[in-house]
Amino acid sequence: MAKLIPVPDDLSKPFWDAINEKRLVVQNCTGCNTMQYPPRAACQHCGSDKFEWKETSGKGHILSFFVTYDGRYQRRIPDQPYNVAIVTLDEDPGINFYANLGGQPPRQVPVGAAVEVVFEEVAPGQLIHDWKVVS
Amino acid sequence: MTTEYTGWTRNKEGLGLWPHQGKVAIVGWGQSDVDRRWDGVSMDKTYGAYGMKAIQQALDDAGVKAEDVDGMFVCPETGAGATGGASADWGPSRPYFEPPYDSEWGLSRLNAKWIIDNMPGFTNVKFAPDNVPAIGEQMGMVSQAVAEGKCQTALLVYGMNNFEGRYRHGGDNASDFAPGPRQWSAPWSSGDGLQLTGAITIQQYCARYGVNWDELMAPVIINEHRNGLMHDWGFYSLHGASGLTYEDYANARPVLWPCRIWDCDRPTNGVGAFLFTTGDRAKDMKQKPVYVLNHNGGQGGSVRSSQETLDESEAGRAMVARMAYEGSGLRPEDVDIFNPYDGYSFFLPLTLEGFGWHGVGKGDSKDFFNGDISVEGPHPFTSGGGNLGVGRTRTAMYIDSIQQLRGTAGKRQVNIKAETAICAFAPARSAAYMCLSSVKP
Fold first, then answer.
1. pLDDT at position B1, please?
2. For domain B24-167+267-282, is the CATH number 3.40.47.10?
3. Which segments of chain B have a pLDDT < 70?
4. What does the pLDDT read at residue B196?
5. Are B372 and B379 within 8 A, CB to CB?
6. Which domains can be identified in chain A, with CATH numbers?
7. N or C: which terminus of chain A carries fewer CB neighbours within 10 A?
8. What does the pLDDT average to over A49-71?
9. Which chain A residues are closer than 8 Å to B190 by Cβ?
10. Is the ipTM of this complex over 0.85?
């Protein structure tokens, strides 16, 4: 799959650096101890701008999904149809991630199943996180 | 002329009744033909020509002359937006024409200057801001401007264009890279936040409430196509009825499965216009005034993580409903006509349940849609046919509401009382709802 290549910025660079080390991290507010993903400049919960990067277990569950048959990204058209799932993080199910669940045939997505993070190279030196179903 | 107008948005709870009730009325509307695309040849069917046609209709409908208009609010966006590529802009891939079609103005975009330069009579326009949003909030902007005395008789113009070329496959969507907010979704997803958000939340909805997608969506979409045919200007009225059946819907090609092509509005070329004036002036105009009870903008709630969840969708819809009811003074049982936005079909169940129209609560939409929602029946939901019924004009919700409140909706005229209406171009958790009444508050 030729996925789009993320472009890190000042805020997201620590996240993508961790991904390139095969670690899934999220922001954790040091003011109210709330996790946050995607990264933001301020905590959605308390407004603090003080964060630490917290490594997660990389374990989650599938919340829902759809299948892209006619998407708009030119780079992804050759991959169609492909699953797009939403995965919640076990440590905090309010945190969710997009996933393609490589290996799952289109429409064959076990909603509620356990998943774990995997890493995939989308450009030389740039990994992204995805998820796979665990038995 | 004015170049900017700010501070007019009512975008939170707790603002109370709109203090200008009765001071602003809609007194005219016009709508061009709605075509799939401009053919590049027929100069009487350009975006600009259609804009002038809609404006003249709105003036004639109200019995107002161009000279009487002192406010002009024209949304300059293109239908397909920044990611439209060739479908959004005529140039640079295609040659321009003799003036006034020697630039994008008049071909893919409209603004007050182009209209004033090319349509006779607009000699007294004094208030014409540049920063005009899309029609949902545009309606509120015009209402507030008239209420605040920025202008007395104001023209709203809103169009959607669509040229040859894959819709929204250009711009950033043609890039291999995902900068900014897109870095958190684009590597895995499909390229349309609203489509993505709605499809996921309705998938969750179907699971939570034990509802089959086809049984939920097909009846309301088919009914919207039926209602849309009862306008004489809609895409299907002019270019052939869809004849959509349940089987057609269920077997249609998937876009974001289980969302299919019929869940998505059809991009079209057409322009609508509406005339607003003060409550005092409205009394002497040609048509029965339709008074503005309230307008809102902004968003209902926020999303915590990558993807809006069903809980967030439901909470957001409930919040925007509270804003509309608070500002208008209406209760759910007071709303006769309900024309919410349907650019994707799956906006409808959550919006209906959030507003609680006709007592519909969480998880009740499938049963409601499978009952009698025809314009002849007791629950004439989306009597205007919406975008799905007429094409992607984003105007049918407003036009139908005005007609219903005037009693001039013809074959679409509902049999129930029609004194109040809520209508919108309000995608997902947008709060851009208009509340209208045929009775002066």
1. 65
2. yes
3. 1-2
4. 75
5. yes
6. 11-55 (no CATH), 57-135 (2.40.50)
7. C
8. 97
9. 68, 71-73, 76, 84
10. yes
